[in-house]
Design a protein that fits this description.
The chain is built from eleven helices and 14 strands. By secondary structure, the chain is of the alpha/beta class. The protein has two domains: about 300 residues, Alkaline Phosphatase, subunit A (3-Layer(aba) Sandwich), CATH 3.40.720.10; about 55 residues, no CATH class. The strands form four sheets. The protein has an eight-stranded mixed β-sheet with strand order 9-8-10-1-11-12-6-13, with helices on both faces. β8, α5 and β9 form a beta-alpha-beta unit. This is Phosphoesterase family protein.
């Protein structure tokens, strides 16, 4: 599984016009007069009633490079402007309904994309701004889970620290942005705002190594790619550079011996202030025990945290432009809502909102793929049995808290979940300084 995590483009901005005339994609269709428009609710939940506004959308007029400020939010790209992404839409899959995890900026969505929580923040802040003891957010990440399960992974960052680079890992500090080390070109630091990323410095690799490993069929089971800033599709960088990087990575994977067992996911961290006409869906409560401040101060899980701009996380953000690329994917596929939740429970009849794809879906997929071989060795034991995921959690939390692991063979699904939750809360309350 290879993930390319790029910057700040809503689904309408990239694919709204490009796929607008396809009946299976909720885009911006061409009117009989050749123009484009969409109803957009004035406030979430107002639907298409009297409060909705008509928005004129201009297709094919988005700036390839904006100067000084992002281009206008309702000026969209055409297929001719983004030929690589258009080719992907014709040959592989595009998500119609893939939402950002937080209706906010980059940092909280980067946190969710690698740890399934933002620890209560919906702003670009450090953890100590939220009452935390450290600048880094303490939650476990997908990289921690993979490391404990001995699943190989790599975090590929152009011009950053690690093997095959010229920048010492000692220069990496909490925060996320452009490094100013000794490299000839700038690149994005990995998301070391999270301790669960920073502690895996030995897995920080250059893009040079990414291409070498792809050519040799030697990529690890999970690869996370942070693009060079100027090729990240972030306003106001040249979209042609992002197109070229996407094509280069695709060609490297496609021509390598590992292609037939590769899933390549390309997604954007947030909507970047660009227009998207699809209403933001509701989401279940963020029940992650990472909301440490709440637990310590007896604040309800639906209440505010100590972070600026308190948010209850009961709503997802706008749609993200997301592509799925693999030889196993049907040509020109459009992916809509999932039919079931990822936790085995059918949502029909539930009081919770229906399931949606968001950034955390990538983490669930990675963990499912990592444990697939193990799961396949055993016959399904039924809904009350301890799952492979719970076994990994118990091993992980036992190691983190230095608590002896229980006898999993005498546990059931509920007791295993309760033990794991108790150890996780214990870990989150620990002073890690």
């Amino acid at each position: 599984m290879v993930v390319l995590f790029v910057e700040n483009r809503a689904a309408d901005h990239i694919f709204g016009c490009m796929l607008g005339d396809r009946p299976d994609f909720d885009g911006i269709p061409t009117r009989p007069d050749g123009g484009h428009w969409k109803l957009f609710p004035a406030e979430p939940g107002t639907g298409s009633g009297p409060a909705a506004k008509m928005v004129n959308v201009s297709c094919g007029t988005a700036d390839q490079v904006c100067h000084g400020a992002p281009n206008e939010s309702t000026r969209m790209f055409s297929a001719a402007q983004l030929p690589v992404k258009h080719a992907i839409s014709e040959s592989f899959a595009v998500f119609n309904k893939m939402f950002t995890s937080v209706p906010g900026p980059s940092w909280p969505n980067h946190l969710f994309s690698q740890s399934a929580t933002s620890c209560g923040t919906s702003s670009n802040v450090m953890y100590n701004t939220c009452g935390g003891k450290t600048a880094q957010f303490p939650q476990m990440t997908i990289f921690d889970s993979l490391a404990l399960a001995n699943v190989p992974f790599g975090i590929y960052v152009n011009d950053t620290c690690g093997p095959n680079t010229t920048l010492s890992c000692g220069d990496v500090t909490p925060g996320w942005g452009t490094n100013t080390g000794t490299n000839a070109s700038t690149g994005l630091d990995p998301d070391v705002t999270m301790a669960g990323v920073a502690r895996h410095k030995s897995h920080f690799f250059s893009h040079t190594l990414l291409y070498e490993q792809a050519a040799a069929g030697a990529l690890p089971a999970f690869s996370w790619i942070s693009p060079a800033h100027e090729a990240s599709d972030h306003p106001c960088f040249d979209m042609a550079k992002g197109e070229r990087m996407l094509k280069d990575i695709y060609e490297a994977l496609r021509n390598g011996p590992g292609w037939n067992k590769t899933l390549f996911v390309v997604t954007y961290d947030d909507y970047g202030g660009f227009y998207d006409h699809v209403e933001r869906p509701a989401a279940p409560h963020d029940e992650s025990p990472c909301n440490v401040w709440n637990a310590q101060h007896n604040v309800s899980k639906t209440g505010p945290t100590d972070c600026p701009n308190a948010f209850d996380f009961q709503q997802l953000g706008l749609r993200s432009s997301t592509m799925l690329i693999s030889p196993w994917i049907k040509k020109a596929s459009i992916i809509n809502e999932p039919l079931k939740r990822g936790d085995r429970a059918d949502w029909h009849g539930s009081s919770e909102p229906p399931p949606q794809w968001d950034h955390t879906s990538m983490l669930a997929t990675a963990k499912n793929l990592a444990s697939f071989e193990e799961i396949g060795k055993e016959k399904c034991q039924g809904p009350k049995a301890v799952t492979a995921k719970q076994r990994l959690q118990i091993a992980l939390y036992s190691a983190l808290t230095q608590t002896p692991a229980p006898d999993i063979d005498v546990m059931d699904y509920e007791s295993a979940g309760a033990w794991a939750k108790a150890r996780w809360l214990e870990y989150m309350a620990m002073d890690l300084e």
